[in-house]
Amino acid sequence: MQIYWTTINKIIDETPEVRTYLLDCPEEFTWEEGSHTHFALEGFNAGDKPNRGLIRHMSISTLPNENTIGITTRIREQCSEFKAVLRNHKVGDKVAIFKTHSNVPLKREGKNVYLLSSGVGLATFRPLVLDYLERADNVNQIHSLNIDSSKDFLFTNIFKSAPDKKFTAQFVDNRKDYYEEVKNLAEDRDGLFYVVGSDEFIVQNIEVLREHGIKPEQIMLDKHEQQRSELLSVDLSI
């Protein structure tokens, strides 16, 4: 396994609780839209066994042509050991990335694509939207729906409706409006539905989509195949 050590070159305060850490691109490090990586802080591999408290599974919120690796995360006042340490990191500090993979690249199958996310999960979709806006080949249109109860919505400079590009962005701040809209979107029986958020959020979305006739193969999750199969095996008869 190759571990890439790199440097924080910029820290952006996206909202009062959300930061994006922009990292230098190590030589030979490559990724595609929808990628996640293992993001680790110094000291994680200092002992006989890796300190898992200093490692997190994170989405990369940038595209390769931006020439920087973006890690966007929410850091609340009460937070984990990992985020408490990360909060004190400065520009110039070293971090590590490894085991990078994409479970949710943009499918170009001539269909409508729906991006369903909660809070900072929108970071996973930022590269997909940028990729689509740069090259719309074989994608009919994209609709993004994000719920964030904080009302501090992310990336509004990118997630803004552009009718000429067949892209629409919608933000809601409550579950009732969110799931009503998911039901409306599920009327498209041929669409592709991407879902990113907590496991509870993912399961709730799957249940709504399945109840409205969306098949498992139309639902894309940022999960390994085994995890994806388990989440999609929801029993609709219960």
Automatic annotation (TrEMBL):
GO terms for molecular function: oxidoreductase activity. Transmembrane segments: none annotated. Gene3D superfamilies: Nucleotide-binding domain of ferredoxin-NADP reductase (FNR) module (3.40.50.80), Translation factors (2.40.30.10). It comes from the Bacteria. Residues 1-107 form the FAD-binding FR-type domain. Coiled coil: none annotated. SUPFAM superfamilies: Ferredoxin reductase-like, C-terminal NADP-linked domain, Riboflavin synthase domain-like. This is Dihydropteridine reductase. It comes from Ornithinibacillus hominis.
